[in-house]
Design a protein that fits this description.
mainly beta, 7-stranded antiparallel sheet, 10 Kd Chaperonin, Protein Cpn10, Chain O, globular
């Protein structure tokens, strides 16, 4: 990875379930919704994300790439909205999220 790029594997494919257990099909129209993904690789200028972190991003701002038959998303660090990682949970009053 170069510069400030982050390669992520998306969790947002397919159908979802509501908190009440209702299945929401992937084709259902919803408003603007952010999605979670797992960071797979990061460039040398990325400061806040490490491989294995979960990141929150806007699915509208993405570039898809296929590597060895697996689909990934490529984005800039500045396009991420939040980072969830275990390393943030040790501090006082921490939620585990870096916003």
């Amino acid at each position: 990875m170069l510069h400030d790029r982050v390669l992520v594997k998306s969790d947002a494919e397919g159908e979802r379930r509501s908190t009440g257990g209702i299945v929401i099909p992937a084709t259902a129209a919803v408003g603007r919704r952010l999605a979670w993904a797992e960071a797979v690789a990061v460039g040398q200028n990325v400061r806040t994300v490490e491989p294995g972190d979960r990141v929150l991003y806007d699915p509208e701002d993405r570039a898809e790439v296929e590597v060895r038959g697996v689909s990934y998303l490529l984005m800039r660090e500045r396009d991420l909205h939040a980072v969830a990682a275990d390393r943030f949970e040790g501090s006082e009053d921490s939620t585990g999220l870096y916003l």
